[in-house]
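Trying the structure run again after the queue cleared.
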Amino acid sequence: MAGWHETDGLRYLTFDALDSPVNQHAIFSRRGGVSPEPWRSLNVGGSVGDDPERVVENRRRSFAALDLENASLYDVYQVHGSDVICTDAPHLDDRQRVQKKADAILTNQRGVTLFMRFADCAPVFLFDAKCQVIGLVHAGWQGAVAGTAAAAVEAMQARYGSHPGNIRAVIGPSIGAHHYPVGADVIEKVEQVFDGQAGKLLQPHYVNGHESGVQFDLWQANRLVLEQAGVDEIEISGICTACHLEDWFSHRGENGRTGRFGALIALR
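Done. Tokens:
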């Protein structure tokens, strides 16, 4: 189950599946920041047209809400791929920071806060309490068919000795199937990758009671990817970003003119 919290005007979710004395985590709503429309207000996306100083301030507020140091940040340039980066240290500082391209980040080090940005794609948190390893994954439809979450689980095994059965996963707020009609290119990829399971993920899409194409279930796709990687404990928040624009940025729900909300996790 997800629970809402509020600190200094910032609203954020935490998840029972990740609850532990050895980690801090949150996924932040769009509330409590300094950005104007169309990024109102806690936009942490630096590539959507917002002023960089406002973006930095919004991120600072997010970290402060959990008493985390800005200097603990580790993030990447998200590209809808399946590359995984394991890090032992945060970035040096904003001026010296060079973002690597990846869509999954892992660490087993305290003093490192993993941070990613979203606006419909699924945030996937990973936590192995036994080996004390944490991860964040960015997985929209491209990440789902590329198996990005599975690649992260495999990296947790190879690098840190995690067993998939000990990994807890949470699929956070992201676009629901009823708001996610897809075209022939996506349908073809899903059918290729998920084969006999594709019928569960591709369903008729209705507009005003009339069938209008096909919709894709991103939540269940990422669940399948995790299950096939051996993860048993998976929580889906069930929160559709396009349905709740008062709390979430949604690329589809706002016709591409919007910000990005942040997700973070850190060992303590």
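The radius of gyration is 18 Å. Worth checking whether this holds up in the mutant runs.
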